[in-house]
Amino acid sequence: MPVVAEQAKRFEAEADGGSPVFRRSTAPQLVEASASEAKRHSRVPNPLRLHLGWHGLSAWSRSPAKRLLDCIFVMLAAPVAVPLMVLAAAAVRFTSPGPVLFRQARMGQAGKTFVILKLRTMEHTPNAKHHPVTTSTNQRFTPVGPFLRRWKLDELPQIVNVLRGDLSLVGPRPKLSEHTILDLPCRPGITGLATVAFANEEAALAKVPQDCLKDYYHSFVLPLKQQLDASYMARATLLSDLRIILKSVMRRGEGAALDGTAFASATAPGCNIATRSRQTGKTSPQEREHRSVVMEVS
């Protein structure tokens, strides 16, 4: 996937302050999973899913100092984060019926599940099933839901997950089990390189026809996120983590990976692109354009 590798290089250079740091000697190698590993991790029954593996973590990603920094940063941010969380929680409570917190099982480090905490942004409908792939149009949001999601205020309760050790500040986002390609070798994060790059994901995915959404998400978006996260975590440093946090707070990089207009035009042909690839086993020019558009950096 040369397009993905090139775009990963550009994201990596930007995350490290624009320096040409993606070198052949240090670039993480994404390898195909063995047959046994692919079978063990085949949570998504999709023939187009790419089995990409993690190949090493940087010294910082494995360091106890990263965990220590997470706790220190949360404690320092608490005087600002806690009042914001209380105000956001009050807005949820008084604008829609139902619980304030949304709890959901997510996949953590080494395949262990944990309960992630968020402020509820969707209407509370007991026993109702939500779409596994969220877009800006396929869910029933609360009056304040879009605002909370736009500014990531619904993620504030996850500072509790950080203190518990479920999450790190920076890392791959924890996914639902059906969206997990391979188990994470590190703690998932509140934010990360793929999170910054796919900041406009919900709006862009709304352009995809609903009957194609699941196939497209599993075939293209998830593998590209995996590529970015694996590339970043193999080279992450303290400084690069701080840059990712700053980008997340300042909303820099928004729309970098998914441009709504271009994305819509690229996906207009529908699922036929994916279907043809599945039938022929070949990558079509349209499919290559799909991947290029998804990973285009603004």
Q: What is the number of independent domains? A: 1
Beta-strand residue percentage: 5-15%
Average pLDDT metric: 76
Structural class: mainly alpha
- Return the string of H and E elements: HHHHEEHHEEHHHHHHH
Q: What does the main sheet amount to? A: 2 strands, antiparallel
Give the beta-strand count.
Answer: 4
How much helix, percentage-wise, in residues? 40-55%
| Spatial separation of the terminal alpha carbons | 20 Å
Low-confidence stretches: 1-5, 18-51, 260-270, 273-280, 289-298
Overall form: globular
Report the total helices: 13
- Order the strands across the largest sheet as they lie in space: 1-2
Taking Cα atoms only, what radius of gyration do you get, to the nearest Å? 19 Å
Describe the model:
The chain is mainly α. The chain has one domain (2-10, 55-294). Helices cover 48% and strands 7% of the residues. The chain is built from 13 helices and four strands. It has helices spanning 2-15, 35-40, 59-62, 64-95, 145-150, 158-164, 193-197, 201-205, 210-233, 238-250, 260-267, 272-280, 285-294, and strands spanning 101-107, 113-119, 168-170, 189-191. Strands 1-2 form a two-stranded antiparallel ribbon. Strands 3-4 form a two-stranded parallel sheet. Strand 1 and strand 2 (113-119) form a beta hairpin. Helix 1 crosses helix 9 (210-233) and helix 11 (260-267) packs antiparallel against helix 13.
Question: What's the SSE blueprint?
Answer:
Layout: H1 2-15, H2 35-40, H3 59-62, H4 64-95, E1 101-107, E2 113-119, H5 145-150, H6 158-164, E3 168-170, E4 189-191, H7 193-197, H8 201-205, H9 210-233, H10 238-250, H11 260-267, H12 272-280, H13 285-294
Parallel strand pairs: 3-4
Antiparallel strand pairs: 1-2
